Amino acid sequence: MNPPTPPSTLPEKGRVARPLQHQLASHQAGWSRWLPGWQVLRHYDMAWLPHDVVAGLALTAVLVPVGIGYAVASGLPGICGLYATMASLLAYALFGPSRIMVLGPDSSLAALILAVVLPLSAGDPQRTIALAGMMALVSGALCVAAGIARLGFITELLSKPIRYGYMNGIALTVIASQLPALFGFSVDAHGLLDESRLFVSALLAGKTNLLALGIGAGTLLTVLLFRRRPRVPGVLIAVAGANLVVTLQKLASGTDTTASVPVLGALPQGLPGFSLPTMGASDITPVLLGGLAVALISFADTSVLSRTYAGRTAAFVDPNQEMVGLGAANLAAGLFQGFPISASASRTPVAEAAGARTQLTGVIGALAVGAMLLTAPGLLSDLPVAALAAVVIASAIGLIEVADLRRIWRIQRWEFWLSKGCLLGVALLGAMPGIGLAIVVAVIEFLWDGWRPHSAVLGRVDGVKGYHDIARHPAARVVPGLVLFRWDAPLFFANAELFKCRVLDAVADSPTPVRWMVVGAEPITSVDVTSADALDELDKTLREAGIELCFAEMKDPVKDKLKRFGLFSSLGEHRFFSTLGEAVSRYLEAEPVAWLDWEDRIAGATPDRTQEGSSAEPLGTPRPSR
Asked: Are 395 and 89 spatial neighbours (Cβ–Cβ below 8 Å)?
C-alpha cells in the first residue's frame, strides 16, 4: 500500500487538514497505533521543516525561564524544570496525539507538588528531587494504564464549577508562595494562611528588598502586557531584561543586601542522566495520593487543551491516546530527574503562533534547551529570583476564572457556592486535601442529582403531541383510572425508596380510582439489584390494591438487566409497552372508560367505549396542579 500523499497546501497557522488525519488513522495498526509521532514522521512533508524549526527555537525562549520558575515554585532546584521540560517534550513527541501540544512544568501542579515534597524532604534537595520524581512516575503509570483501559472519560467527573474552584484556590496558593520572592525575601511557611501571615509580618518588619521588588514588578508588568500578543515572546523579553539589569549593574555581587538581589546562580552543566527515584516506606501514602491528584488534574487540563486545538485544526484526537501520551511524558520526566508535568496553556499558543506544524517543534525546543545546558549553563546565573517569581505569578493569574463564575452566579447559584467551597478547601486545607475535597464534592454532586431527581405525572395537552407534566400544564387531560408516571433518572440504591414513595403518592393523588400505573421508563438508563427489589415490592403493594404496574419505552439494556434479576418474567412481558401511546390504547381496550383525545375530536371521532354509572370523572376533566 502506498503511503498517503501529504496535502500540497496547508491551512493557515499550520493547521493540518482533516483528510490527512483520516489517512494517517487508516494506516495505524498494531503497536504503531500507540506511537502517533512515528506515524507523523513516516509521512512528514519536508515543507513543514522550516516552520517546525523556527517554532521550536521561538518556543525555547519561553521554555527555559518558565521551566526554572515552576521548578522553584514546586520546591525543587531550577535545573529540574529544564530536565522535566526536555524529557516530557521528547516523550510526548512520540506518544502524544496532538500535533502542537506543548507539555512541561505547570503552575497548576506547583502547589500540589510543593505540598507533598516540602514536609517530607526535610530540606534535603536530593530527597526533594527523588520524591517529585516518584510522583511523576506514579502519575505517569496511572495515566498510561487508564489510557490503555480506555478510561479517558474519567476527568469528566469534575464539573466546571468544581474545576474553577480548585484552580482558583491553586492560583491563590501559588501567588501567596511567590510573593516573598517577589519582594526579595523568603519565609519558612507552608500553606496559604501560614504564608500570608508570615509575608505580612515580614513586610511590617521592613524586610522588603526594593531593588528586587522593582525588578520583579517590572517583569510581572511586562509579561502581563504582552500576554495578548502570543507572537511576541513577552516572557523572554521580561526575563532577559531583568537578567541584563542585574548583570550590568552588578546587583548580584554586592555585599550590601540593600544594593543586591537574590539570583538563580549557575546551572549544572550537562544533560540529565537516567535515575530511578527511591523513597521510604513512610513516603508511600502521600506520594501515591499526590501522584493520583496530579494524574487527575494534569489530564483534565491536557484533555481540555487538546480538544480545543483539535477543534481549531479540524483534527481528531483520541482522549485515551492523549492520556497515554501524558503518562509517557510524566514517566520520562520522573526517570530523568524531573517532576510531574502537564499541558501548557501558555506555551502551546506560542508554538502555534510561531507556525508549528508537528510534534517536531517540541523536539527542537528540547534539543535547544539541552544545547544551552551543554554549552552555556551560566547564561542565566544572574537571573533574579524575583523575576522568576513574577513569571510564576503571571501564570497563576491566568489560572483565575472570574467571568464564567459570574455567569454561573446568574444561572445556578448553588453551583457557584459549590465552586467557592472548593476554593476554600484548597486555600484552608492545602492542595492535597483540596483535590480530595473536590473529588468528594464531585461524587456527592453526581449522586445528589440522581438521589432526588425530577418526576412527573403525565397528561395530554390540547394541540401538543405526546404526554407532558401536568404540574406544568394544569389544563392537561388524564385518562380516568390510568396514571402515567415519568422518572427522570437511573434507578439505583440511593433513590429506590424515593421512587416507590413518589409512585404511591401519584396513585394517592389521582382524582379517580387507579387501575393501571404506567411508568414512562425512557429516562431510566439503568437499574441495580436494590432498585429491582424495590420494583418487586412496589408491584406487590400495587397488586394488593388492585393496580397493575406497567412500563413504557424502557430501553433494551435495562430490560436485559431485569431479565437477569428475574423481574421481567415475574412481571410478565405483557406489562411492557413500546410507547406511552400504546400503553394508553391497551388500557382503553381493557378498561371501559370514556375517553376522547383532542386529536380524535379534531378528526370528528366519537368515544368507542362508555360505561354507564361509572365512577370515572366526566370526559376530559382537567387534573389539578400539584
From this structure: no
Residue 509 has pLDDT above 80, yes or no: yes
| Cell numbers at 67, concatenated | 521551566
Determine the Cα–Cα distance for residues 396 and 91; give it in Å rounded to an integer: 26
User: How far, rounded to the nearest angstrom, does the alpha carbon of residue 25 sit from its chain's CA centroid?
Assistant: 26
**pLDDT exceeds cutoff 50 at 50:** yes
Share of the chain above pLDDT 70, in %: 86
Pairing between β-strand 482-487 and β-strand 516-520 as defined by DSSP bridges: parallel
Q: Which residues contact 500 (CB under 8 A, 6 or more apart)?
A: 534, 537, 538, 541
H or E, element range at 285? helix 284-312
Residue the block writes with cell 542522566: 273
**46-50, 213-217, 347-351: segment of lowest average pLDDT:** 347-351
Could you please report the per-residue DSSP string of 491-526? --TTTHHHHHHHHHHHHHH-SS--SEEEEE-TT---
Q: What is the grid cell recorded at 626?
A: 400539584
pLDDT given at position 616: 37
How many other CB atoms are there within 10 angstroms of residue 336's CB atom? 22
β strands within 313-366, DSSP E: 342-343
Residue 623 pLDDT class (50, 70, 90 cuts)? very low
In whole numbers, what is the pLDDT of the chain averaged over residues? Answer: 83
Nearest-angstrom CA–CA distance, 70 and 117: 14
Instruction: State the Cα–Cα distance between residues 106 and 74, nearest whole angstrom.
Output: 10
Read off the C-alpha cell for 3: 503511503
Q: Give the whole-angstrom CA distance, residue 484 versus residue 518.
A: 5
Model confidence at 327: pLDDT above 80: yes
C-alpha cell recorded at residue 400: 483565575
pLDDT at position 191 is 74
- Which is nearest to 306 in space by CA: 339, 344, 274, 265? 344
Cα–Cα distance between 357 and 353 in angstroms, integer? 11
In contact, 81 and 113? CB cutoff 8 Å: no
Nearest-angstrom CA–CA distance, 605 and 599: 9
Sign of CA dihedral 506, 508, 512, 515: positive
Three-state SS at 252 = coil
DSSP 622: B
Q: Which residues contact 410 (CB under 8 A, 6 or more apart)?
A: none
| Residue of 73, 403, 405, 65 whose CA lies nearest to 241 | 65
Give the closest residue to 359 by CA, choosing from 370, 348, 368. 348
Higher pLDDT, 100 or 342: 342
pLDDT higher than threshold 60 for residue 13: no
Average pLDDT on 310-334 reads 83
What are the tens digits of pLDDT across the range 278-301? 888 889 999 999 999 899 888 877
State the maximum Cα–Cα separation within the chain, in Å, rounded to a whole number.
109
DSSP letter assigned to residue 545: T
Q: What percent of the chain has pLDDT over 90?
A: 42
Give the chain's length. 626
For residues 381 and 429, give the distance between their C-alpha atoms in angstroms, rounded to a whole number.
36
CB contact at 8 A, 338 and 84: yes
Q: Is 449 left (phi over 0), alpha (psi -120 to 50) or beta?
A: alpha
- Identify the CA nearest to 337 among candidates 619, 589, 105: 105
pLDDT value of position 445? 76
